[in-house]
Structures are given as C-alpha cells and as structure tokens.
Amino acid sequence: MQVKRIKDGPERIYAVVFQTGDDPIEGLKAVARDEGLAGSSLTAIGAFRRAVLGFFDFDRKDYDRIPVEGQCEVVSLIGNIAESPDGPGLHLHAVLGKRDGQAVAGHLLEAEVHPTLEVMLLESPKHLVRRKDAATGLALLAPSTPGP
Amino acid sequence: MQVKRIKDGPERIYAVVFQTGDDPIEGLKAVARDEGLAGSSLTAIGAFRRAVLGFFDFDRKDYDRIPVEGQCEVVSLIGNIAESPDGPGLHLHAVLGKRDGQAVAGHLLEAEVHPTLEVMLLESPKHLVRRKDAATGLALLAPSTPGP
Amino acid sequence: MQVKRIKDGPERIYAVVFQTGDDPIEGLKAVARDEGLAGSSLTAIGAFRRAVLGFFDFDRKDYDRIPVEGQCEVVSLIGNIAESPDGPGLHLHAVLGKRDGQAVAGHLLEAEVHPTLEVMLLESPKHLVRRKDAATGLALLAPSTPGP
Q1: Per the CB < 8 Å rule, is A148 touching B35?
Q2: What is the model's pLDDT at position C10?
Q3: More confident: C73 or B38
Q4: Rounded to whole angstroms, how far apart are CA atoms B24 and B29?
Q5: Given an 8 Å threshold on Cβ–Cβ distance, is C142 in contact with A99?
Q6: Mean pLDDT throughout C103-107?
Q7: Going by DSSP bridges, is the β-strand pair C87-97/C103-123 parallel, antiparallel, or unpaired?
Q8: Contact, B105 vs B1, CB < 8 A?
Q9: Which residues of chain C from 36 to 65 reach within 8 Å of chain A, CB to CB?
Q10: Measured between alpha carbons, how far is B137 from B112 in angstroms, rounded to an integer?
Q11: Average pLDDT across chain C, whole number
C-alpha cells in the first residue's frame, strides 16, 4: 500500500494505491488511524482475486456472506470513514465485475487486491461519528450536530 | 434526515444521513432548496426496503419502471444537482444489491430508506443548469458558459 | 462535449457534459491534455447507445472484450486521471444497466454517448503518475513520493 497526500489545507485529498495481496479494509483503517482521518468519502477502482460481499440480515442482525471466488474487476467501490467507538469506522460497498461482465454487489466484508486498487479519498475538516443503533446493532452514521 | 455541513468556504461539503422510512429523492431536493445547492455531485451507500429503477424509453420519452421489491443494499448511488426550471434538478443513478448479490441498476425513480443512507455531497461555487432537450424531453445538464 | 470549470484555486472542479455520438474516453483525454489535468478523480452518470467493457486476462496480459449492444444506462462510471508515458493516463470502470435492470460491469474500453453523460471531475494540486508494471504490462498508478 502506498499513500500520497495530494492536497493539504483544511480538507485533504489522498491517493491510496494497494498492490497484489493487500487487504484494502485493514489498509484503509490503518491510513485512517495514521492520518487521523474522519469525515472522509472515497471512491476506488481496481481488481480483486477474491472477495466476500455482505447482505445485512435484519433477523440475525448480521451480514449474510456472499463469497466471490476468482479474479474480478472492482468496478465501483464507494465508502466513507467516520469516528466510531472501536476506532476508524469504515463503510464500503462494492460492485464487482466477473469475466463475462456479470455484476455482483454488496457490502464489502473481505477482499484481496490483485493487481491494484486505486483509492481517491477526500477528507473534510469536520468529523463524522458512528453510533451503535439499538434496532439493528449496526454502527450508523450520526452527524453529531444536527442541522448545517 | 440529518444534514451536517462539514466544510465551509467557497465549496461546501455535506453529509446527509437518511433514516428508515425517508424518501431520499424528496429529501435531497429539500436540502438543495434549503441550502441553495447547485453544481453539486454526490455519492452514497446504504440500504432501501423498496425502490423503483428507471430505464429511459426514447419512443415514449419516459422511463420504464423496474420495481425492486424487498430489502436491498444501495451499493452505488451517484448523482448531481443542478438548477432546473422546476427547482433543484436532481439526477441519481443506483446500483442495488439483492440478498444473493445480484446487481440491478438504473435511474433512481423511487426509494424508501431502511435503515440508513449515507450521502456525501460536494458543492461547487459555480452553478450548473439543466435545460429541456427538445429531442428527448429530458432536462439535460447544460453548462451555461461553454469552455472552461 | 462541453467543459465548465466550476472551481478555481489549488484544486479545480470541472463538469464535463457529453452529447449524443461523443466518445467519452477520447473526450476525457482531450480535456486532460487541454487543461493539464493529473491527479484527478471523477464520477459520471448518463447513458450509452453502445459500449465495450473489459475484463483483464492475466495470461494474455490484455482485456477480454465484453460488447454491450444497444441502449444502456450508465449507472456508475468511476475513474481517475494520472500522468503516463503516453500522455494522460485515464482509467475508467463502468456499471451499465440494461432495459430490464440487469447490471453489467467492467473496465470501460469503448463507449458512445446517447443522449448525455455528465462527468464531475475533481483535480488535485499534486500530480499522480502511472508506470508500466512488468508483471502485467498494465500502467499502474504509482504515487511518486511514497508516504504522505
């Protein structure tokens, strides 16, 4: 993983480039911790050699696992970073493209990069916070000061 | 719906968080009106408990409706806001992920959030305008000053 | 194609609007050349009347072609621009929605706009560079200064 801050000032922009074998979820959490990121949004494209997507089951209050075996294009990876009780709260959703163009989509639970994942991250000066939602058990984004 | 301006200055960044039962299309129009937004782009992730996607039919000059029943992950929601004759011109396209990971995709016509939709919105200082296109009847984005 | 710079200053924001018949890949390369863009990220929505998606084959070190015939919604187009040895290095991945909502996804190899493609582009003050990767032959994003 390589990290380059490409804009300083009140808001910061980063390019984060992952290489073969990297875990992008742990990698982005590490960047968030090291750089003190919160209130960030990101988009990314690239490819994985394996991934597990998730679909939230409201009865079990947990994600069903949807394994995606073999090489796939990361066609859309959209996410955000907020403060959460357990450290950086990272939320990522991915659309993956298979060899025949079939698209599979869901919450990103696990992934292994091959050969690259190119993340563009925009950080904002004010922090965003995640709080545990009693109804679902999910850590939902909770703007700490309602209203603009 | 909660709105937090997370960056002031010439361009503004907002986090808009929708909750269960919210209509994100009407909600984003309300934010655009209340905050005077134009020339904005946004990305979002979350989940819906129902949605209707659209595919534009050039013969009828209207959208075919593609109902998506039941809970789905909002895996990619990309859009923009511009001024239009009828108020804020909101254009949203969505990729939705079903329980088995199947992806469905189209123009977003209707949606009901469950349990959250997290929108990150970047507003630019110059306005963008939509104008009605005679050929299709669509309100297409028309940069008012051609050239940079 | 119409180009409007909607934010000046250290980072620049552009709206690039393509019209029927435009080639968005050549168009974005032209904008990148004309405006001296590098270190940019973009999102777009709209529609194509034909497209070819790609899936990278590591044995052949080239993309398999996945033709998408007929009108489709451009539901997610995410990409970035970096300097590369051959001029602007443009990397685009697309999720396309068919008439019935079926999603197809991959690297964008060819496309013809109909009736519009609305691109929002954020340029950063520092440059990003692509370098040829010996293992794959791909021009991968290589932050020139590792670390922030």
Answers
A1: yes
A2: 66
A3: C73
A4: 8
A5: no
A6: 98
A7: antiparallel
A8: no
A9: 39, 41, 43, 53, 55-56, 58, 64
A10: 27
A11: 90
Torsion of CA A40, B11, B43, B146, to 10 degrees: -140
Asked which of A93-102, A137-146, B30-39, B49-58 is least confident by mean pLDDT, the reply is A137-146
Interchain CB contact of B80 with C (< 8 Å)? yes
pLDDT in tens, A79-122: 999 988 788 889 999 999 999 999 999 999 999 999 999 999 99
Q: What contacts C36, CB < 8 A, 6 or more positions away?
A: none
**Residue A77 dihedral angles phi and psi, to the nearest 5°:** -130, 115
CB proximity A89 to B under 8 Å: no
Q: Which two tokens stand for residue B92?
A: 């949203």
Whether the per-residue pLDDT at A147 is higher than 50: the answer is no
Which residue does chain A place closest to C78, by CA atoms?
A76
Q: Which of C7, C11, C13, C41 to mutate to probe the A interface, most A CBs <10 Å?
A: C41
Write down the architecture of domain A2-130 according to CATH.
2-Layer Sandwich (3.30)
d(CA C84, CA C72): 31
CB contact under 8 A, C101 and B147: no
Q: Give the model confidence (pLDDT) of A45-91 as tens digits.
A: 999 999 999 999 999 999 999 999 999 999 999 999 998 878 888 99
User: What's the pLDDT tens digit per position in A5-21?
Assistant: 766 666 788 999 999 99
Binning chain A into helix, strand and coil, the percentages to the nearest 5 are 10, 65, 30
Contact B143 C15 (CB under 8 A): yes
Q: Choosing among C124, C129, C132, C138, which should be mutated to test the A contact, i.e. which has the most A CBs within 10 A?
A: C124
C2 touches chain B (CB under 8 A): yes
Where do the domains of chain A lie? 2-130
Q: Nearest Cα to B127, choosing from B62, B68, B80? A: B80
The residue ranking higher by pLDDT, C36 or B105, is B105
Mutate to test the interface with C, among B57, B141, B144, B145 (most CBs of C within 10 A): B141
- Give the single-character DSSP code of C58: T
Mean per-residue pLDDT, A25-30: 96
Per-residue pLDDT, B64 = 98
Return the biggest CA–CA distance within chain C.
46
Q: Report the predicted TM-score, pTM, of the whole model to 2 decimal places.
A: 0.93
